[in-house]
Amino acid sequence: MYHDPRLQRARGRDAILDHGRSVLDVESQALAQLRDVLDDDFTRAVELILETQGRVVVSGMGKSGHIARKMAATFASTGTPAIFIHPGEAAHGDLGMLLAGDLLVVLSNSGATPELRPIMDYARSLDCPIVAISAQRHSPMAQAASAAIILPRVRETCPVNISPTTSTTLMLALGDALAVATMGVRGITREQLERLHPGGAIGLRLLPINDIMHSGDQLPLVGIEAPMRDVLVTMTEKSLGIAGVLDGEGRLVGTITDGDLRRNIDRLLVSSAAEVMTRNPKTVPDGTYAEDALAILSANKITALFVMDHDLPDRPVGLVHIHDFNRLGFS
């Protein structure tokens, strides 16, 4: 019998997709279980974090250690000072990184990882509270903790139920839940996050519009009675595809865009700015976050926004163009 290789390849691809989707199904169901079993120990853990005068020190071995490292980074980036300590290195001198006043968070699915014992013993000697994250309520680690968050018993998505997959997904999500809940109770503001994320994509999103806007002599501004000949000269010189129209008191009363020019092309040379402009243009106040300004541009399908003085909201102090965002790497 003839076997069409294209059909075999298609069946192979379908099987791969089925495997991938089944993994996501199992892990999403496990996350739903975790949500349902969260109890007062989660609340107690957040309270301990909030009461900590020092840092949150997170530790775990193997795959749990990778999650612990990410958890520490998430705490730090959301306003809770935190570090990761490798339990193996801790037993060889790095215990000195744990100080009185710190809180220790330990991750182990079994709750009996031997490498965690030295750092837990040292934490107890310093009277540091311990938060344990484990799937075993009666494990030595959970029994020694001030708060023990017990993960639901789930099957790993590994076909032989050995490689940490589902369990580490639960730990990762739980770390996010702890960090964000703590952040919410602390009342961490967007301005505080901006100081913690000056670089990368997050830094761009939290960038004040004032840092990228055109201002001063770069602004394409014309008077309301200006003949369109002069408006065209201004738009050409500034090369931003827009002109702001000011009344006699310097208030922004309209804009003229390339679209307005096309719509009035038959009478441009005999018109004034007032006859061509679009009234009530979209604007943003200075201090607006770049992310929010970009959202306004996208929602209104426009390419430029005038930035208005915060104290005098009808006076333009800047202009941002969609190309400014593209240049910075916004998408």
If you had to describe this structure to a student in words, what would you say it looks like?
The chain is of the alpha/beta class and 331 residues long. The protein has two domains: 5-188, Glucose-6-phosphate isomerase like protein, domain 1 (Rossmann fold, 3-Layer(aba) Sandwich), CATH 3.40.50.10490; 209-328, Roll (CBS-domain). It is built from 14 helices and twelve strands. The chain has helices spanning 5-37, 40-51, 63-77, 87-90, 117-125, 140-144, 166-186, 190-196, 200-205, 228-238, 258-263, 273-276, 290-300, 322-328; strands at residues 56-60, 82-84, 103-107, 130-134, 147-150, 221-223, 242-246, 252-257, 278-279, 283-285, 304-308, 316-321. It has a five-stranded parallel β-sheet, with helices on both faces. The chain has a four-stranded mixed β-sheet with strand order 6-7-8-9. Strand 4, helix 6 and strand 5 form a beta-alpha-beta unit. Helix 1 (5-37) packs across helix 7, helix 2 crosses helix 7 (166-186) and helix 3 packs parallel to helix 7 (166-186). The longest helix is centred in the N-terminal third of the chain and has 33 residues, at 5-37. The chain starts with a helix and ends with a helix.
Task: Write a concise keyword list for the protein shown above.
alpha/beta; Rossmann fold; CBS-domain; 2 domains; five-stranded parallel sheet; four-stranded mixed sheet; 12 strands; elongated
